[in-house]
Amino acid sequence: MLALCCLLVSCIRAHAGDAEEIRSRARDLGIVIGTYASGPLNAITDVAGVKVGHTTLISGQGPLKPGLGPVRTGVTVVIPRDDVWHKKVPAGSFVLNGTGEMTGLAWVSEAGFLEYPIALTNTLNVPRVANGLMTWMIGHYPEIGITDDTLTPVVAECDDGRLNDIQGRHVSEADVVAALDSATSGPVKEGTVGAGTGMVSYGFKGGIGSASRKLPDKEGGYTVGVLVNANHGRRPELIVAGVPVGRIYDASSSAAARAVQPGQSEGSIIIVVATDAPLDSRQLTRLAKRAALGLARTGSTARHGSGDFILAFSTANIIPHYPEDPTYSLTHLSDAHINPVITATVEATEEAILNALTMATTVVGRDGYKAEAISLERLREILGSRTR
Asked: Cα–Cα distances in Å, from 329 out to 313, 316, 333?
């Protein structure tokens, strides 16, 4: 059954533009990143208890009518574990470049933990998505703000205005609640889905990508999972498995063909790292910084106009909500043994970004703007003997 689920995720057939596209994950194209093995799903949900949900909104076509459409957007949620309000997870964050927003990071930094789901969406929809998170949380914990504490939701954004009527703020509270209610610990949908619906990365259609690494028992046996919303980079920057694919990709194309896919936006990327390694907030902040190295391996230089936000959490320990006892115990991985977890994070981040590209489908958005999916045939041709 698990093998079937993996197959369903690793290869999809979708209508995009005027053509039907068959998409595959990087690993299924023979692109193997790093040395560590992936988890069974090769996704953030390989970390036990983590769930991911999406609501995808696609409607309308033609000229932009602000507030009405066309709509190419959505919301993606990551739930660290069931009842994370009462069983908080240690967390840390890192802002590589701050031209963007991930709300709630001040409290994560101060408290050292995460106590609610994470939501990803577009820039102008942040307040509505925050409302949706609060509505869902209050529905599950009715005493919030009365006899219980209040909350400061974590909502991360990328700008999907090239394809989407972003002024319309089309993601509703109900859409957020639906994504949370439908979140699952199974295979993660990737590419043109949820918050990734209107994203463009390295001059190609981008979006949601995920990957994981499972360390061998001798190195702790821990799992690291990553989920990204890729909306960053210019085409000439793209590197795949060490090959400058972005510079080679259009080499045989006409100038006219290149002109319709310039990839000039500096964009943003959101990276969520999950692990079952017993790390504290300080160590998770270090891990979040290392995810930036996985981003760099795909060619990004975190340009001035890019918003690169990274949040990392661990499910290994429970931080109680209102503990009766003045002390509680946490298991703690020694820094002397953290290097394999760091390497796994870098590898999983790099592969998650590539999965976002190879799983995304071509999308025609507002005013006829067409974000082409990267050609898998051309990618295989460029990589040649490097794939296996």
From this structure: 18, 12, 13
When divided into structural domains, the chain yields a total of 1
- The CATH code of the domain that includes 59 is 3.60.70.12
Residue 343 lies in domain: 27-322+332-373
Q: Which residues pair with 221 in a beta bridge?
A: none
What is the token pair recorded at 39?
């988890």
Query: Mind listing the pLDDT tens digit for each residue in 41-78?
Result: 999 999 999 999 999 999 999 999 999 999 999 999 99
- Whether 215 is covered by a domain: the verdict is yes
Catalytic residue positions, numbered: 268, 306, 308
Within-domain flag for 47: yes
What tens digit of pLDDT does each residue of 252-280 get? 554 334 433 433 457 899 999 999 999 99
302 Rama class: left (phi>0) / alpha (psi -120 to 50) / beta: left
pTM: 0.93
What are the b/e assignments for 268-277, b being 16+ CB within 10 Å?
bbbbbbbbbb
